[in-house]
Structures are given as C-alpha cells and as structure tokens.
Amino acid sequence: MSAADIKNTELPAQPEDERKIDIAGHSGLLLVAAVMGLIANWVATGVSPVAALPGMVILYVVSVIGLALARFAPFYLPSVAWVSLVAILITIPGVPGAAYATEKVEALNFLALATPALAYGGLALTRNEFQIARHSGWKIVIVAICVMFGTYMGSVVIADLMLRIGG
C-alpha cells in the first residue's frame, strides 16, 4: 500500500458539527424511520399501527425537539443527549402529561423499533470503507465474516440468557 493509498483511506479528522444539521431534512428521515418502526412494531407484537401511532408521534416529537435543541442551544450537547433529556423530562411522574406519554409509548416494543435501524447500520457502507476493502485484499473478507458471525452469535447467546432470566 502506497502513501497515497493510505492518505485516501483516512477518515475525516472532524465529525460533522451537529449545530449545522438540517432539522427539516432530518425530520423527514425521522418520519420515514417512524413509519418503518410502526410496521416493525406491528409485525413483531401484533399491535396495530393505529393503536401505536400516538406513542410513535410522541417519540417523533421528542426526537425533533432534541435535534432543535442540539442545533440552537447556547451550549453543546450531542443530539442523542438532548433527545434523552427531553424524553426523561416528559416522563417524570408528576409532570403534566407524563402518565399519558408513558402509557402511549408502552404500545411500542423497543426491540421491534431498534431492529430495522440496527440492520441498516450494520449494512450501510461508506465510500471510504469500500476503498479500504479494495486495498486490504481477500483476507479481510474472511476476518470480517468471522467477526460478524461471532458478534451475531454472542448477541444471540446474551439475548437468550436475558430472556430466560427475565421470562
């Protein structure tokens, strides 16, 4: 591998600044994810999308508020921290509407919502990753398959143990 190849495969030094994100664009993507989540929840739990819609709307609104806070707050916190903070605040017992929000969100199954997002995250490859793979050779494919298989099997074992303990 030449120095030029190594330079082309380096990751960017600075991640994207969340204070410059396009809230409207991200809101649209969140809407698509919400629809996919409703369908996944329906398939996994049998709860109809209409019954789960109020809970999904609450999650969507909390997410958009968290993105807006990440963009416009006078100090920096990552958007995931803002979303979590807003979600915690609206579900604190005694806060007006907390019981309603908690009841409606209970119609959603976290694993059903997380599965499509995690599957996409696991399959999404960037141009930079393709360049690295081209320069690494065939041995990296074997290593990658072993790592993915081991990670999957480890996750299956841990999930099975947790379900047996909890159920």
What's a concise summary of this model?
The protein is built from 8 helices and no strands. The chain is mainly alpha-helical and 167 residues long.
Descriptive overview:
This protein has 167 residues and is mainly alpha-helical. It folds into two domains: 13-121, no CATH class; 133-167. Helix content is 75%, strand content 0%. The protein is built from eight helices and no strands. It has helices spanning 3-8, 23-45, 49-72, 79-90, 98-105, 110-123, 127-136, 139-166. Helix 2 (23-45) runs antiparallel to helix 3, helix 2 (23-45) packs across helix 6 (110-123) and helix 3 packs across helix 4. The longest helix has 28 residues, at 139-166. The chain is globular, with a radius of gyration of 20 Å.
Count of strand segments: 0
Number of domains: 2
Biggest sheet, in brief? none
Shape: globular
Number of helices: 8
N- and C-termini, Cα separation? 52 Å
- Which structural class should the secondary elements be placed in? mainly alpha
Helix content: over 70%
Set out the fold topology.
Blueprint: H1 3-8, H2 23-45, H3 49-72, H4 79-90, H5 98-105, H6 110-123, H7 127-136, H8 139-166
Helix pairs in contact: 2-3, 2-6, 3-4, 3-5
Task: List the keywords.
2 domains, mainly alpha, 8 helices, 75% helix, single chain
